[in-house]
Structures are given as structure tokens and as C-alpha cells.
Structure prediction request, 1048 residues.
Amino acid sequence: MTRPDLSKATAPVPADGRPVLEVDDLHVEFRTRSGVVHAVNGVSYSLTQGETLAILGESGSGKSVSAQAIMGILDSPPAVITGGGIWFEGTDLLTQPEEEQRKVRGPGISMIFQDALSSLNPVYSVGFQIGEMFRAHRGMSKKDARKRAIELMDRVRIPAAARRVDDFPHQFSGGMRQRVMIAMAIALDPRILIADEPTTALDVTVQAQVMDLLKDLQAETGMGLILITHDLGVVNEVADNVAVMYAGEIVERGTVDDVFTRPAHPYTDGLMSSVPQVEAKGGRLQPIVGQPPNLARIPSGCPFHPRCSRRRLGAEAAPGRECSTDVPPLRLVVPGREAACHYSEEVLGVRAQ
Amino acid sequence: MSEPSEHGATAASSLPAAVPGDHVHSSLTKLTSGGAATGSRGEMGEALLEVRGLQKHFPLTQGIVFKRTVGHVRAVDGVDLTLRRGETVGLVGESGCGKSTVSKLIVALERPTAGSIFFKGKDVARMGGRALKEYRREVQIIFQDPYASLNPRMTVGDIVAEGWSVHSDVAPKKGRLKRTQELLDRVGLNPDYVNRYPHQFSGGQRQRIGIARALALQPEVIVCDEPVSALDVSVQAQVVNLLEDLQDELGLSYLFIAHDLSVVRHISDRVAVMYLGSIVEEGTAEEVYSAPSHPYTQALLSSVPLHEPHLRGQKDRILLQGDVPSPADPPSGCRFRTRCWKAQDVCATDPPALVDRGQGHPSACHFAEARTVVPVDAE
Amino acid sequence: MTDQQQADLLHDEVEAGTTTGLASPSVDVTKERQNSLWSDAWGHLKRNPLFWIGAVLGLVFLLMAIVPQVFARGADPRACNLSNSQQKPSAEHWFGFDQQGCDYLANVVYGARNSLIIGLLAVLVILVLGLLVGAVTGFYGGLLDSLLSRLTDIFYAVPFILGAIVVLRSGFLGRGVAAVAVALAIFGWMTAMRLVRSQVIAVKSSDYVAAARAMGASNGRILIRHILPNAVAPVLVYTTITIGVLIAAEATLTYLGVGLQRPAISWGLQISAGQSLLRTSPHLVLFPSIILTLTVMAFIMMGDALRDALDPRQRA
Prediction:
């Protein structure tokens, strides 16, 4: 039962290193009765084959919205994509007609969600729902689809798949339901799998099983994995690269090793010191003051400045780097690391000592 | 731990909540240590709550008008716990292990099927009338969901002050508003917001209101049922720090129930691990986390993702097979044997007692053996 | 830094909760008014045109019931002259005359009183019965709940109108306004009771009720302070809509000849009397029907608007 940690199994090296998916300066707004909510404000990231990119953020940081935009499952209205592009294998999905988008997305990109129970239809057996993917997209017969469904359930390590294929979602435990959803998501061999808080609702022992499964499937198929989560530990154990989101923007980006060892943005730094670790009792926690901002009223300048312990206001600030007025762009701080803070070098320096 | 600052030394802003004014501090201390209702405060370390052989079985019924009992869910099945004055006992376990039922039993929201809860030597199950009312004043609860735990139709002030209309001897009618405001101030809320309603506050702020409500009755014990798991990561730490500060200041004892092993390690003095209705391992936080001896604890700890990149891959991964068995039909003998790699014949027949078998702290496993699964952060 | 910048900054800080010690509510900090859920609902209601149409209509009919003289343009509904029998509407007499030669506008206007009294009285009985039985069954549960719920099922099994007809025909309540109201309420309270019961059960298991119980609060206190205020919203919506339904039901009963009887003035009686003359004098059916429909709609619209305003799913 004990085995070495495989969570960092080497991913297949991308054939040409070209990104499979590129999100370019994406803007998404929600136009609600009580005002415009700026959920995503100029977010860019890319994903190569076999890469695991974690998007780390708290609730209301816009981390799920960008993924929903990629999948084309934003409720519109109220959501409106106001700018940017989503490039998948060389085509901008946003400029394509809806029918075309569906053809590209269906087999190319798939997604799993936090709440597996509400994502599965309670009145159909899980085998039927997995098989549906093959019937709808590959035109398979009912019998073949059922056979493929059993294979897939085996592949996601559901015990006694042949016996359980006709069971209904409520007859499975939370972890098993999440596996059913993963089986549906990988049915058509997607190039990219987006996992939105896939283990948040699960117990920690089950979470470990599901994360292991995702990593193994990725190693087998070489698909790119976008992992949306608020859990620093999961990011550390699973992802290659991480993008930290705050108030609808990416505030820091780099490899997990770099970002977690030496954060360059005060928000990332604050997050690290406010979360207790299982590996040490640690001293007093150092929370970030205040609350995450309301996306309908994002603070001026750097959106993090009202909560930031390093902000420089008025005369203290260097010219053009006043935290409450000048918006810090996401810029290269050291090779391989970008951060959206006027004073990232300082943050890096302090942490390095 | 006694450093009252809510944030790092470099933080530019000052927080009235984090650095309470002297008047608030002293009046609150007075609030909790004096007064006729409070009685005398005992020594630190004195056992306040002793739970012995606690059981709670929920009947499974069929039928509409005349219900037939067809079985029992053994939600809690033999739990022993001791909570001493001024300490925090962490109770960890996965969903469905019965930890929330334990909290409901301790605050007397449910009656135990068997076993007893002794508070200062008196059995809570035998209490009635005045004694029970007094017990309910001394033992308060903080809930997980800050949205469901506050009455949406009551103002914050009314919510915090409600306990005083039940226990009118705690605070005289005159000056209740002032006390409410002091309490709000103490938990880090603006005292001017007494007339606001819960839905106007964020999750973290609501949890502070819940804490203020619990504090209003000057309790000795607070049962914290997953108090931070519904909060955003950056807000969790604020609430954890607040709980720690209040404990230092008022000498409170916490039973801290959570599934987040990191938070429990951080806040607890002692830790009890629960599986399928009973406690499988118990000890100081250090003992349980550095030298877990029950296979379940080891598996649990090895599943928690680490935060430090340089420790990644240094731990043994113990992947458990299968799911937790149903509490309506638990396995014979040791509850964990169906998923345990050490299981032998004896495990199916003899339930292991929660005792020290030489590993340094009590563990309910016939083959208990300390083992390090969480690498020690050298930094 | 300019004053404006400073003001902006302060605003942002307050938003993020730094200067006020994490304390400012997440909603608009500049607004002084304290919002309860009820006042929020009112704010919502105020912006709903459906509510205003319903409210204005409802108010007009209420005034009509209280001071019919004002609306009858000086005519007395009982001052009739057979020579005017079945005259068509004119500039002088907007609704024309009925078969007896009575001013029809005055008749229709005076009919509002009985309709509204019956509607409101019946709804009051329904509300009281529903709250009482619903709260008791939902809160205490057990055998009492089982028995009362089965009793409700028995009432459910009898069609509303049929039940009322049987009661009124039996005669032991009489045939007055109160009798019709009670007959309607007896067979109309079950939905209200079920609504209250299910709400009470839902609220009973909420954490804030557990918190109050853990504090040692008594059952009465929990019921009155915590459960009922949170359980009444759906039943208020239901009863508002029901007023309209009851008014229509009263007209139906009266039309069928088991409700109010002459010389009482009521829309049901007018429609009933008018139907035999439908071919020669359609206005005799048309006017009371329009007014009846408008009244029923007014309450249904208000109920709908109230539901929108009280529905928590609409709130972010």
C-alpha cells in the first residue's frame, strides 16, 4: 500500500514546445442589476502539452470565470466577454461561430467541477452518461458505448467497473463520483483538462487518491492540465507552474518552486504566511488584513494596495509607482518570474534573507 | 502567542480590533472573571469536561404514521475525551466520522444513547432545569457556516445580546448595549454596526459575530465546530488568531473540531483522531503529528499536501483503498481493519483499546507503532 | 496627493476593511440606513412596476369598499326605476342600468365591499389556522405531526368549492358574509399550513436555532424570535395571492346560488342575474366581470411581486 510519491512524475516533453492553449488579455464582465462586476481583467496564460498550470486564488478572484470562458459555459447574460482572445491550436475560439466553437471544444478541452453530484444527471446510470460521450461525438452504438464506458471506469480505478456501470450517481461515494466525472472528461482524449476545485469537496485521503489519478492520467495521455484551486498544498504537490489571481488579475506567475520558495508579490507572500502547514506547528499566523475586494468596486491603482503591508503612498512612492493610483503591470521581475507589483524586487529580497 | 498584533510588523495600517484599548480589555476581563453568575474560576489544567464512553445511535426508521426501527446509525460509538482548563483539544476526522455529533452532544443539543459527559464532575445527562441552564451558559458553540448560524432577521446587536435575555443575571438590562459594543470591538468589528443585519457582512465578519455571541455568556468552554473551514484562506488566519488571543486573555478552553489537519496542528495542545465513531489515537499535537502510531492517522497525515517545495516527495504516501464503511453496519473488531494493511485475524474479533502500547501516547491499534510520515520542516 | 486622491484612498481602505479594523460591512459603507431583509425586500418591491399596478388597483378597490358613495357618482344602488331597465351605458350612467332599473355603476361599486370583506376575512382565518397548525406540527413533529398532517390530507381530498358548497347548503352557518368566508377558509387553509410546516422544519434545523437552543432559550422564544420570522415569507406571498383567489371563489359560490343572497349586493349575484340577459344586455355581465378580474389580478400581481422581492435566490 505504501509507495513512493509519484505526484511529480515527469510529464512528456512537448513535441514542439508550442502552447496548445493561449489565453490572451481576456476580459469578462458580469452585467447585473446592481452594477458591473469585473470578474476577469486582462488575464493571459498559456499551456503546453503535458504541463500542469495551477490557477491559485480565493473566492471571487475570478479564477473560475476565465476557465468557464475557455469552455464557453459562461451564462450570457449576465456574463459578457469584453475583450481578448482564447487561442486553441492556432484558432481564436472567440471569433468562431458558436457551432464551430463547440466542435473544437468538445473533444479538445474538457472540464471537471467541484460538485460531482450536481454535475451528473441523477436519473441516468453512470455508464449511460459516460457512454453518451461516445454516442454523441463518435456515433457509437449503445452496446459499444457501454463497453467503452466500462473500460473508462476501469481506467479511473473504479472497483468492479463491470458491475457498477449500471448504478446511478447517488449510489457512489463522493470520491467515486468525482472519478465518474473524470472518466467522462477524458472519454474523448482531450488535449486539455480543466479541473475546477476538483478535490475541495472531498476528504483529504480521497483528495490524495483523485490527485494521483489525475497525475497518472496526464502522464499517460500527455494532456495539459489547468488546476483551479485555493489550496496551496495541492498546488505545491501537483502543479509545474502557478498563476496567482487577485481581483480578476494575475498578480504573480512562475514555477511552483520559485513562487512558493520566494514570492515576489505581497499577496502571494501574505497568503503563504497566513496558512498553517501540516509540517510544522509554526508561530503565530500572519494574516492578510481586510477582506478580498468586491469585484464590482475594485480599488484604484494596485487592487491589493488597501490590504498591502508594503504599499507606498504619496511622497513615499517612487515616481510613477504610487500604489493607490498607478496600476502595476504584470512584468518580468527575474528570469522566469512575473509579478504585478511596483516593489517586487523588495518583496523578493526580503524573503531571500 | 500573546503578541496582540493582527498582522506582520511591517504592516502600515493599525487595527483597533487587533490592539484593543485598555478599557475594553479590562472590562472584558472583568466581564468574564467576576460576577455572581460566573462562580469561581479554577486552576489552569483542571479537567473541565470529561467524556466517558459516549455513544449516540440514531434510529433508522420506516413507516409514516407508526415508525418502525429497522436499524441504527452508530454516529458516535464510544468516545473518551478530556478537556482541561485553558487548553485546546483538536478533534480531527473525515466527514461522517461523527465529530460533529460529538459537538452536538457536548453542548446538549442531542442526548447521548449511552456514556456520560462530566462537566466539573457533574453528569450533563442527569442535569435538568437550573443546572442544565447554567451548563449551557458555561459551554458555548461556534458553528461552521457563518451564513446559516446567524438569524437573518435579527440585528447584530440582538444576536450578540440574545443570551442575556435567557440568562438575565449575566448582564443587567442597563448597559447591555455598551457591553454588546465592547464585545463587537473585541472580536474586531466596528461597534457602530450593532444595528446592521448579518447579510451585510462578509463570511469572516459573520464568524466574528458568532464568536461575540458565544463570548457574551462568559463561557468557560467553547466548542468550535469547523469554525474556519468555510472562510477564505486569507481570512482563516484572522479568525484563528482571534480565537488564540481570546483564549490567552480569558482563559477559555476550546474543543476544536475540524477536518483541516494543518489548522488543528496549529491551534491545538492535544489532538484526538476520530474514525467511524470512535477515537483511534490521542496525544499532544507534537506526538500525534510527528509520531503517529495508528495506521489511519498515518494515512490521514500522509495525504495532506505539503506547502514547502523542498519537502515535496519526501514523505511516504499511504494511499487508502476503498471507502469508509457505513456507520449503520460497522466492521466487527477494529473499525479500520477493512482498509488497514496491518490487519490480522485478531483485528476482526477484538476491538483494540485506546491505550499506550509503548509508542508514547494512546492509540487504538493492536499493532501500534510510531512512524514519521510528515517530514519535519528544518527551516 | 490631492484631497480627491486621499478621499478615494480612504474609500478603498474602508472597502477593504483596513482602517476600520476589518469591521466595515462588505456592502455600501456610505449608506447610513440599516437594512433588514424586510426593508431590502421593500426596496426591491418599490422598483417592481407589477407591484405598483397591483397596489394602486388594490387601493382603489379598498377605497371603493370603504366609501362607495364617492365612486358611485351620487347614485344609490337601491334607488331603482323600472323604466330604466337594461339601459345601455351612457355618459350620465357609465355602466348603464340593470333589469330592475338600478344604476349599475353604483351596484358594481357597492359590490366591492362584500367581495373584499369575504376575501380578507377568509384569508385571515387561513393565515391563523395555517400558522398555528403549521408551526405546531413543524416544530413539535412526532405523532401530533403525523395526525394533523393526515387530517390535512383529508381536507385536501375534498375539492375546495365542493366543500364550501356542502357546508353552505347544510345551512348551519347561515348564508351571510361571515358564513361564506368561513366556508371558504375551512377548505382553503391546508396549503398555507403545509407551507408554514415545511418552512418551520427547514428553519428548525438551522444553526442559529441550534445556537439559541445551546444558549438555553425556551421553545416559545425559539419559535417566536427565530422560527416564525424566518418562516412567514412564503406564506405571506401565498396569502396575498389567495385573497384574489378567494374573491373569485366567492363570486363562483354566489353565482352557483349557494353564496350570498339578495338583497346583498355582490359581483357574483350580478353576473348570475346578468347571464340570462347576456344576449340583450351584455354589459350586465361584462362590467362586474371586468372589475372582478381586476381585483383578483391586483392581489395576484402583488403576491407575485412580493415573491420576487422575498426570494433569497434573487439576492447575491
